Amino acid sequence: MESIVVIGAGLAGCEATWQIAKRGGRVILYEMKPTLYSSAHRSPYFAELVCSNSLKSESLENASGILKEELRLLDSLILKIARETRVPAGESLAVDREQFSKKITQMIENLEGVEIIREEVRSLPRDRVTIIATGPLTSEALSVEIKKVTGDENLFFYDAISPIVTYESINLEKTFRASRYGRGGEDYLNCPMDEEIYYRFVDELIRAEKVHLRNFEKRYLFEGCLPIEELAIRGRDTLAFGPLRPVGLIDPRTKRQPFAVVQLRQEDEFGTLYNLVGFQTRLKQSEQKRIFRMIPGLEEAEFVRWGSIHRNTFIDSPRLLLPSLQLRTQPHLYMAGQIIGVEGYLESTAMGLLAGINALRHLQGRDPVFPPRTTAIGALLHYILNYKNFPFQPMNINFGLFPPLREKARGRRKRILFSQRALEELKEWKEKYHL
């Protein structure tokens, strides 16, 4: 059987390689380290963790815990080694970075049917089944190649992400629905601020602790997506004339235009998630939670995604990918990991697992498989393929991505039901396709 080319030995690339090899497929795995390092990488080993050593919660009452259990059921190499190299972290799964990477490297090196080539890939195969899993810091040469096959407008190099909160955690008594000047109906939830609340909010933004810029993140502040705190520093009234401008909005309770307004936009088809419009930020997560809860209606807000601005290479997946993770225009090319717009170590791993399984099935002349949308992996896949707003924004797994339950439930009961449904349907899917 012809070998499948996997480009990149990060989490997604290693998982894809493992899934292919354990099913009897052959792989040529390319990794540019140690010949060439990105500005963030230091270790010659595979699956290097550049940021935190935490892989988040293992609790089945947490969406990330459900994802881990699904990966365990599908025999994920990354999860297996993570648990073998864990360090104390409460209910979270955290690892010894060096041992984690070393063990994964050894496992991949010892796999039958896997050839490893340590060099940079500067051009893409034209007619060979290939998985591109080069991550958020794809090399410049390969980025140029990816641009050629996806189009310049479909490859992004920086995230400018606003926080997302759950709908059920918003105090609707303090908000009102409206679009500016009534255009677009009642598309936005509006959080009105009076003068006192607004200036107190701005002052806290100015004083807040920011995330320290890492060496590989150049300061690139574009006028079109400035951090909310950067705008505040420019002047205490800047936000009121920018993303918080109240023009065209009348609070039906007061019959007046508020001094300032924070708008929330629906983020998913079920209306379970809402985005804080224009709130991309470099604030630390603890500061985001503290300060953004000063916004009327968000005092008890549950954040499922934090705001950020950072260096990240990712494609416009909703317009480029098939559910199998193949490029629509180049079906021999599969994309996997963070480059397709997922956030998080195990989210990237899950997409590598799926790409590996489907690339091998492609080579075998078999139909691709897609996990049910009610599973964590399926919910994440559905998000990256069906995101409606532009530009596309990456996402981590969270309960807001899951389809609603048939039974009405809240709190812990709701989380348990999500978990039970996901794992039951993942098991059925696995058995159906003999995975």
Distance between the termini: 20 Å
In the CATH hierarchy, what is the class of the largest domain? Alpha Beta
- Biggest β-sheet: strands ordered side by side in the sheet: 10-11-12-13-9-14
Helical proportion, percent range? 25-40%
Estimate the strand proportion: 15-25%
CATH superfamily label of the largest domain: FAD/NAD(P)-binding domain
Number of strands: 16
Order of H and E elements: EHEEHHEEHEEHEEEEHHEEHEEHEHHH
What is the count of helical runs? Answer: 12
Overall pLDDT level = 90
Structural Rg? 22 Å
Summed up, the domain count is: 2
Shape call: globular
Uncertain parts: 216-223
Which secondary-structure class do the elements indicate?
alpha/beta
| Major pleated sheet | 6 strands, antiparallel
What's the architecture of the largest domain in CATH terms? 3-Layer(bba) Sandwich
Look up the CATH topology of the largest domain.
Answer: FAD/NAD(P)-binding domain
Task: Give me the secondary-structure topology.
Layout: E1 4-7, H1 11-21, E2 27-30, E3 54-57, H2 63-73, H3 77-84, E4 86-87, E5 92-95, H4 97-109, E6 114-117, E7 130-132, H5 140-150, E8 155-161, E9 164-166, E10 176-177, E11 188-193, H6 195-207, H7 228-233, E12 260-266, E13 273-276, H8 285-292, E14 303-305, E15 308-315, H9 317-320, E16 333-335, H10 345-363, H11 376-386, H12 411-432
Parallel strand pairs: 1-2, 1-7, 2-6, 7-16
Antiparallel strand pairs: 3-5, 4-5, 8-15, 9-13, 9-14, 10-11, 11-12, 12-13
Helix pairs in contact: 1-10, 2-12
